[in-house]
Design goal:
The chain is built from four helices and eight strands. Helix content is 28%, strand content 30%. It has helices at 12-29, 44-60, 111-121, 166-169, and strands at residues 3-10, 36-41, 65-69, 99-107, 128-136, 148-152, 160-164, 173-179. It has a five-stranded parallel β-sheet with strand order 3-2-4-5-6. 36% of the residues are buried. It is globular and about 45 Å long. It has one domain (16-76, 87-152): Rossmann fold, CATH 3.40.50.2020. It starts with a strand and ends with a strand. By secondary structure, the chain is an alpha/beta fold.
């Protein structure tokens, strides 16, 4: 299926500002970057986590660990999904007693976040897990709430939100529309 955009919600400058603001909020809430790690949920969450980490490094002057997490086999609908999009998980640091910020592009039902937490626990026991998303569109099916949100975007159930990133799509923007 293809996506038919109805409106652009965020442009490239907006996405950049959102990620910088989220970096500031993470540093403020956690009183700096000590024992902090960002783990991006594949695919777009990985690139977002890297950008937030770069912002934190610029603001704070300290390096933040970044990992990438594929949740394909942790999803509650794994039996009904195609397996051709399985990606790599790369967490080459100890998450025990760390403050882990999971980063994803869109928070919708909460099911991907639940799968990400299950997957992360296979790597250890973080002190705290927080969630950062570019867009929170509502419609939760599970009790999940983001700690850092770029844009709250109430949607109807038949609307779709598309986050495009330079690294994957050649452009940074967020659009709302329908499946065509």
């Amino acid at each position: 299926m293809s996506f038919k955009a109805r409106a652009k919600v965020l442009d490239a400058d907006d996405v950049s500002r959102v990620l910088r603001r989220i970096a500031h909020e993470i540093l403020e809430r956690n009183k700096g970057a000590v024992d902090l790690a960002l783990i991006g949920v594949r695919t777009r969450g990985v690139f977002l986590a890297r950008r937030i980490a770069a912002n934190i490094a610029e603001i704070e002057g300290s390096h933040v660990l970044v990992g990438e997490l594929d949740v394909s086999f942790y999803r509650d609908d794994v039996a009904t999904r195609r397996a051709n999009n399985v990606g790599v998980t790369n967490i080459d640091f100890d998450v025990n007693d760390m403050t882990v910020i999971m980063v994803d592009d869109v928070l919708y039902t909460g099911r991907t976040t639940r799968a990400a937490m299950d997957a992360l626990m296979d790597f250890g026991r973080p002190q705290v897990i927080q969630l950062a998303v570019v867009v929170d569109r509502g419609h939760r099916e599970l009790p999940v709430r983001a700690d850092y949100v770029g844009k709250n975007l109430p949607t109807s159930g038949n609307e779709k939100v598309k986050v495009s990133l330079e690294e994957v799509d050649g452009v940074d923007m967020v659009e709302i529309g329908e499946e065509a």
